[in-house]
From TrEMBL:
Keyword Flavoprotein: yes
Any one of the GO BP annotations: alkanesulfonate catabolic process
Protein's UniProt name: TIGR03619 family F420-dependent LLM class oxidoreductase
SUPFAM superfamilies: Bacterial luciferase-like (SSF51679)
C-alpha cells in the first residue's frame, strides 16, 4: 500500500506554511508515497449551499486556506521521489491556459511527479467570485479537460467549445509526463462517476474516519465506474484510485491505520492520502501523525 499526506494548507496548519519544504522533506524521508493539496478559494459567511453540497454551513477548518499551486511547487523543489497530487482542484474556476501553465510548471519542476485531481465543487459563492456560472460547472469541466489535453499535447495549441475558447498560441513548454499528466477526478454522483469512467485516468473517492466509512458504497461506486468504462470501450483496470482519508478530531492513529487496511482488503484500493486538518493543528503534530501512520500501515 502507498500512503500520502496533505501538506499544511488549511485551518491552523496553514499558519505553518513557511515550513512546507520541511514538512515535504520529512514526510518523504519517513516513507510517504505522495503529498497533496486541496482547494478552497473562499468560505462564504452565509453560504447558499453547505459543505459538500449538504446543509447550510461550512466547517471553520475551511476558513483559512493557503494557495495550492504555491505549496505544490515548494514541495516539488524540496523532494525527489513522492508524487504530488491535488485532491481536488475546483478546476472549472480557473482559466484553462493559466491552469495548464501552473500545473505544467509543477510537473516540470518535479520531473513528472504531478497527479492533478479535479472536481467541480459545491459552492455557488466560489463560482460567483470567479465570475463563472455555477449551474454549468459540469459542462465547463468537460470542456476544460479537452482544453488541457490540447494545451498539453499540441503546439501551437487551441481549443474552441461552447463555454471555453482558447485561441491558437505557441505552447512549447510541455509537462515532463508524456503525453500529459493523468486526469484524476473526484466523483460521487452518477453523472460524475460517468465522467470518471469516460474521461478519467483515476478516481478520487473519500472517507472520514471514523464518522463516514462506507466501504459498501465505495465498492458499489467502483463497480459502476467499471461497467460504465466498459460501455465506453475503455479498460476499467486502466482507471486508478486514490482514497482521501479525512480524520475526525480525537481519532487515534491506530484507528486510521486499521481503517486503511480494511478498505484495502475490501476494495483493492492501494493508495491513500490522509488529511489531518480536522485532527491536529500544527505542522509538528501533522508530521508526528504521518510518521506514526506510515509505521502502523507498513507493519501489516
Amino acid at each position: 500500500m502507498k500512503i500520502g499526506f496533505a501538506l499544511p494548507q488549511f485551518h491552523k496548519q496553514a499558519l505553518g506554511i513557511a515550513r512546507t519544504a520541511e514538512f515535504a522533506r520529512e514526510a518523504e524521508n519517513a516513507g510517504a508515497a505522495s503529498l497533496w493539496v486541496g482547494d478552497r478559494n473562499l468560505a462564504a459567511v452565509n453560504p447558499k449551499v453547505g459543505y459538500g453540497g449538504q446543509g447550510d454551513s461550512i466547517p471553520a477548518e475551511l476558513n483559512t486556506a493557503a494557495d495550492p499551486f504555491v505549496l505544490l511547487a515548494i514541495a516539488a523543489s524540496a523532494t525527489e521521489r513522492v508524487l504530488l497530487g491535488t485532491h481536488v482542484l475546483i478546476a472549472p474556476l480557473y482559466p484553462p491556459v493559466q491552469l495548464a501553465r501552473s500545473l505544467t510548471s509543477i510537473d516540470v519542476i518535479s520531473d513528472g511527479r504531478l497527479l492533478p485531481g479535479f472536481g467541480i465543487g459545491w459552492s455557488p459563492e466560489e463560482y460567483e467570485a470567479a465570475g463563472s456560472d455555477f449551474t454549468r460547472r459540469g459542462a465547463r469541466m468537460n470542456e476544460l479537460l479537452d482544453a488541457l489535453d490540447a494545451i498539453w499535447t499540441t503546439d501551437p495549441a487551441q481549443y474552441s467549445g461552447e463555454l471555453i475558447s482558447v485561441p491558437a498560441h505557441h505552447s512549447p513548454l510541455k509537462p515532463a509526463r508524456r503525453p500529459r499528466p493523468p486526469f484524476y477526478l473526484g466523483a460521487m454522483s452518477e453523472r460524475a462517476l460517468r465522467r470518471v469512467a469516460e474521461r478519467g485516468d483515476g478516481w478520487l473517492p473519500l472517507v472520514v474516519v471514523p464518522s463516514y466509512v462506507d466501504i459498501d458504497g465505495l465498492v458499489h461506486q467502483r463497480t459502476a465506474i467499471d461497467q460504465l468504462a466498459r460501455e465506453a470501450g475503455r479498460d476499467p483496470s486502466a482507471i486508478d484510485a486514490v482514497l482521501r482519508v479525512n480524520i475526525d478530531a480525537g481519532t487515534t492513529a491506530q484507528n486510521v491505520a486499521d481503517t486503511i487496511k480494511t478498505v484495502h482488503e475490501r476494495t483493492g484500493i492501494d493508495h491513500f492520502m490522509v488529511d489531518s486538518m480536522y485532527a491536529v493543528h500544527s505542522v509538528d503534530e501533522s508530521l508526528a501523525l504521518a510518521t506514526e501512520l506510515i509505521a502502523l500501515v507498513q507493519k501489516g
